[in-house]
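One such given next:

>
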Amino acid sequence: MVNPWLAMEAGADPVERTRTVRRAHAAFLADGTVAPPVRQVVADSWRRSADAQAAADGAVPIELDEAALSAYRDGHPLARAMPVFRELLGSFAQDGAHLLAVCDPQGRLLWVEGHPGVRRSAERMNFVVGARWDERHAGTNAPGTALAADHAVQIFAAEHYNRQVQRWSCAAAPLHDPRTGRLLGAVDLTGGDHVASPHSLALVQATARAAESHLTSDAPELGVCLAALGRDEALLVMDGERLRLGRRHSEIITLLARHPEGLTGDQLSVLLYGERERRPVTLRAELSRLRQLVGTLLHSRPYRLSRPVETDLDAVEEALAAGEVRSALNAYRGPLLPSSEAPGVQRLRGALADRMRAALLGARDPGLLREWSRTPWGEDDLEVWEALVDALPERSPARSAPLATAHRLRAAYGLTGGGAVGAPAAARVATFTQPPRF
């Protein structure tokens, strides 16, 4: 079976491949249709890029300036793995044909290393430290697509969504915290057509595994961790073993993690199903199936977890309690189990979003507000856009775009009363409290 994550099979003609994929790319931009020879992983990425309104031409945005980048990079967990990246990929990065890049979970490039000439060439498309290369802002590309799919992938030439990037090829693999399973970022090898060879993807995958193993040596105790923010199916990591849970099991583990004292069957049923009538056997069957997956982690009478479980929800709340808004925002990967309709999960999801937004609005930091506004859950948040307008100097050119967005959102929400956008926040009438949530 052909590996769908490889860009080209052995012996394929890169020139012909480029020509056919470029025609398919043009057809997709024209009418949204996509057909072979475009790989499914690329077709899916093109659709995500189009849905996010990523630019098919133009430069990728730079989000972190030198001062912000230095502080953030020094404290990032992947800084400890840089010796591994340099040892295994450094020779490629210095051979005059490749670049080594490492990004964070948001797709922001933290390190870009390689031959100066190649780096200067890549600078023309803003493949530089501080630039954001997730699919939402850069379209289909190896590090961005590896983050979106949570899988190592190659992207060849015209498979890139942005035409400015189509003279390059790249291979990238996601990187995870070995203790929690949390996505830390991705490692990428970028260069010419030769990067589309099978050994390049294998090398990047092996480098990612070596880096994670290196990080494991720094973890004195692995324990049990749960990642449930921004994902419908939670990731449970027990002593380094990763287990992707189904949706109902994700809800159960999340609720039990928040109630270490345990829950009776009736209490857990109300949190999962609400007040509607539900036969006890339904819940018992779900718990029986979950016990088959997690073993002795799940106890009964009352239902509880036998070991402490560290959750990404806890990480955000702890950062907020400490007043570390930047750390909280970095840890907030999205709404808690966003598709869950379990009443207990909905309450937790809403409470965390409220606390996160309140901290951002209180901090009045333009960088933090702008970052929230660029997410799927923050792009229609009128209150945040208005706060961003307030936080920017009145004569700043950067103020015009958020001001226009705030006016558009007020019109969309039918809000014609209150003070003018851009007036001091305290002087405006509070006609809007919070936008719809995911």
About this structure: The chain has a mean pLDDT of 89. The first strand starts at residue 98 and ends at 103.
